[in-house]
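hi!! sorry for the late reply, been swamped w classes. u asked for the two structures so here they r. pasted raw, havent cleaned anything up. first the sequence of the first protein and right below it the tokens
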Amino acid sequence: MLGFFKKKKKETYGPLVYLSEPTILYHTHTEKAILEILEEKLGSNNFVIPSDYGLRTTDHLIPDAEIFVAIAIVGKFTSLVVREIEIARKHGKKIYTLDVARKDDEILYLFEEGIPERIEWLTPEETQSLYAAFRGEDFSGFMKFFVGDRKRQW
């Protein structure tokens, strides 16, 4: 009866892509930009996006994907992304890296095939320190640049 209130589903196309991203990027402007970049680069909008599942694990979906994309922030893979990369490697998935960094007042996205040597692999403790540094900026400056100004979204 009230079908016009339903959100129209976008038609999916292309291979299934698993997006492995740090939880700090869940539901942010940066995540949306990443999806647009990947759709353009990979010719697919058929994504497994862990943020759609809340904080539940989604690594059981990696074997179903044809392509695995690991998101690095400022040249670092968080411990969650590291764990998922290992699963993707075990299953022989084609792996890409998208490094998200900031230069002055702009965000840079560097998309590469494989896993570059320059990316640092963080332990759970190092990941927590990185997140604390992001949160310590109280959603201003560096953090605000990646996730957007939360105050404007309320």
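now the second protein. again sequence first, tokens right under
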Amino acid sequence: MLTRFLYLDEQCLEDLLFVDYLARILKQLTAPLVLVHGSGGRAEQLLEAEGYVPRREKGVLVVQSAREQMLIERGIRETNQRLVAELSERLVPAVGIQGTDRGLLRRECDGTLKVGRVDWLRTLLAQGIWPVLSTLAREHAQAVEVNPAEMLSALAKAWPLDAAQVLLLADPKTHQPAAADVAHHLLQEGIPLWVGPLEALRKLH
């Protein structure tokens, strides 16, 4: 069975109407997807509230202190909780998962992002549950934000060949991937990729 990962970019996370439309589409699909999200605007708000200037490099917020790291982790977790709550309110059976849970994602000493056991994630999908997965990974004793493109690539490679696919939403004006940097990385890695508008998800089989 094909496992699909739908990446929700920053623009999606900050659109107040997006989750309502997303839930309507998801309820029409025949099988659950894994929804993947990064830090979004909430982490930036928490940083700015304490006088920090948010800056991103390679898709992640730059960390220069333990306090910044804590605020970013908090922002990611709150974003995850918000998405799960909003989907659940709209009768989508969602469960929040951090990449650090059950050893799913960990950063090795050489910088490699490793994926642990994924059988429990497959079980959730088989039960009709929609995992909402954050881009937090374990690095030593800390939870750190990882590049979404790197994470999606690592997850897809943890599945058997041609058993995983990454879904990216298209910009409605250009019809190109809204997360162009993520699309570029995945194509370079040879990851099966689908790009299209949200409503076109209903045509997937």
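hope this helps!! also noticed smth abt the second:
The helical segments are 10-14, 18-26, 40-49, 66-89, 119-126, 148-157, 180-188.
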